[in-house]
Amino acid sequence: MNINQMLGINDSYQAPAQIMKILYDRKRREEVFMKFLEAFNFDVSYDWFYEYFQDEHADRIRKKQDFTPKGVADLIVALAGSEGPTYDCASGTGGITIRKWQADRMKTSLYEYKPSNYLYMCEEISDRAIPFLLFNTLIRGMNAIVIHCDVLSRNTYGVFFVQNDKDNPMQFSSLNVMPYSKGVADFLRLKFVEERYKPLIESKVFPKHLMEAKEDVFGQKRTIM
Q: Of 54, 101, 211, 223, which one has the fewest beta carbons inside 10 Å?
């Protein structure tokens, strides 16, 4: 079963909108996640969408999109180090973030690894890449802030908080659309220019580790890739 079949579409141009539709329906989302895990032999160490997105959706003319090969991503991760939260600007579909997440979780045993010890902050301008990026963070049980924005102007279309609610490495994450509020804009140092995404709150508690990470994300203590 190929990616289009698992997403329930006939043509790849339908994928971004279809993925967003799936992501907003938790039951259906997690059913699709299981199909993908089985199709890729439960190997979550790399971005399954790398070739698919680059061949079908990359905007090489206007946005100069060429995505990072796994070997180069590993080199970036090794050079970047591991101090504090991880900031990945121009994240694409999340290939580098996934390799960083893989390196982080390999540092400890399954019994000691806690998703709450790591926070990934991803920023991406492409409408077409954002659904794939969200899919990749959710299925891996990450804690992440995904921002649909121009990283230079800070013009922003939506902010997503991806949370592993039970801090369980075997669990999928929950999806939350952050309010289009001054508080969120000030917290993340951005400016909303359009309310592109419908409200969605799946997590009932704002996590302590996110509050503690604020200074790290915007101060000196962070890993930038």
A: 211
